[in-house]
Amino acid sequence: MHPSRILGIALIVVGAILLYFGYEASQSITEDVRRELTGRFSDETTWYFIGGGAAIVLGLLLSAFGVKRR
């Protein structure tokens, strides 16, 4: 298996873990209160979601297409 595919799979796993942590953080009582008062998630929770989504997209691209060699 090509190293770029291995890296892609690892990024998918890391992205899923980050999304899980973001989901868990968004379900806390303090996050519920903050969301009710301000209408948005905390910066930490938002970065979990952004980082997880970006890692999954990048991992899918790497595992699907990989790095082309000449």
Average pLDDT confidence is 90
The fraction of residues in strands falls at under 5%
Instruction: Count structural domains.
Output: 1
Number of separate helices? 3
N-to-C SSE string, H for helix and E for strand: HHH
Backbone CA Rg: 16 Å
User: Major beta sheet, specifics?
Assistant: none
Low-confidence stretches: none
What key attributes describe this structure?
single chain; mainly alpha; elongated
Written description of the protein model:
The protein is mostly helical. The protein has one domain. It has helices at residues 3-26, 29-38, 43-65. 16% of the residues are buried.
What are the SSEs and their pairings?
Elements: H1 3-26, H2 29-38, H3 43-65
In short:
By secondary structure, the chain is mainly α.
